[in-house]
Specification:
Layout lengths: L9 H19 L14 E2 L2 E7 L3 H16 L3 E4 L9 H7 L2 E6 L4 E6 L7 E6 L17 E3 L5 E3 L1 H13 L4 E5 L5 E6 L3 E7 L7 E3 L7 E6 L5 E5 L4 E2 H14 L8 E3 L2
Parallel strand pairs: 3-16
Antiparallel strand pairs: 1-2, 2-6, 3-4, 4-5, 5-6, 7-8, 7-9, 9-10, 10-11, 11-12, 11-15, 12-16, 13-14
Protein name: EspG family protein
């Protein structure tokens, strides 16, 4: 039987209040006027990093999720990976490999728990969009087509059924492409699927995750005849994959509740 979470103590409530006040101050700063720096507390043109908690960092982050989402709207969980990331995300990735991100009116706010002990809760405020943010065309009527000898235009309402039909006919390596240069790859073994969103022809992309999954699955048949196997944590059930693709075709980006990782 799962124990019910206890109501916050007065000290926890005060801590939450103080952290929200610190974040409000951080988000109100003129980022363009901030001086430079290194390490925790670093700042630069368009960003600032601040430490919010040293004790019970993950618990403090979890307590902040609901009030920040109520204030700023939907939250997106982003797995950062060193490599082809713009600053300050590349630097923040060395501190906290996974972040929760909100889009405020003119900047992004991210919370992350450091991977190196002792765990600390960090906040990043920046005017630079995080990895995976859709291009403006994706927000204003981007069109998609199933890649084939004769491309097949798709709409959000019909893309899932079209992909199911192709998979049922033995096609397991499927691509959707947009005139903007963006693309979505769905590679499946008819049970699970790897879904990758690419921002352009040379982009390594970002793929959907199933963080609680264990083990690996094989039988992923590529168009060139190669058969691959992948960790289940890097693929999702086929039904979920179709939901993700439909959402990308509809909005240009991942659903807010879908974990994914940048491969850049």
């Amino acid at each position: 039987m799962t124990a019910e979470p206890h109501p916050p103590t007065s000290s926890e409530a005060r801590l939450l209040h103080d952290q929200l006040a610190a974040l409000a101050l951080l988000c109100s700063r003129d980022l363009g006027a901030e001086p430079g720096g290194a390490g925790l507390g670093a700042s630069g043109p368009g960003y600032r990093i601040s430490e919010l908690a040293r004790d019970k960092a993950a618990k403090s982050r979890d307590a902040l999720l609901a009030p920040l989402t109520k204030q700023w709207g939907s939250v997106r969980r982003v797995a950062l990976r060193d490599g082809q990331l713009r600053e300050p995300w590349a630097f923040f990735a060395t501190l906290a490999p996974e972040v929760h991100v909100w889009h405020t009116p003119d900047r992004w706010l991210a919370l992350g728990v450091t991977s190196a002990p002792p765990a600390r809760l960090l906040a990043l405020v920046t005017t630079t969009a995080p990895p995976g943010t859709p291009a403006p065309a994706a927000e204003t009527g981007e069109t998609w087509a199933l890649d084939a000898d004769v491309p097949v235009p798709v709409t959000p309402d019909e893309v899932a059924q079209l992909l199911r039909t192709r998979i049922g006919g033995g096609q397991f390596d499927l691509w959707l492409k947009s005139p903007s240069g963006r693309a979505v790859s769905l590679l499946t073994n008819a049970d699970r699927a790897m879904v990758v969103l690419f921002e352009g022809p040379d982009d390594p992309g970002e793929h959907a995750l199933d963080p609680g999954a264990e083990g690996a699955s094989g039988g992923f048949l590529l168009a060139d005849g190669q058969i691959d196997a992948y960790p289940d944590a890097d693929t999702v059930p086929l039904g979920e994959a179709l939901r993700l693709v439909e959402h990308i075709v509809r909005t240009g980006t991942w659903p807010d509740d879908a974990p994914w990782m940048s491969d850049r």
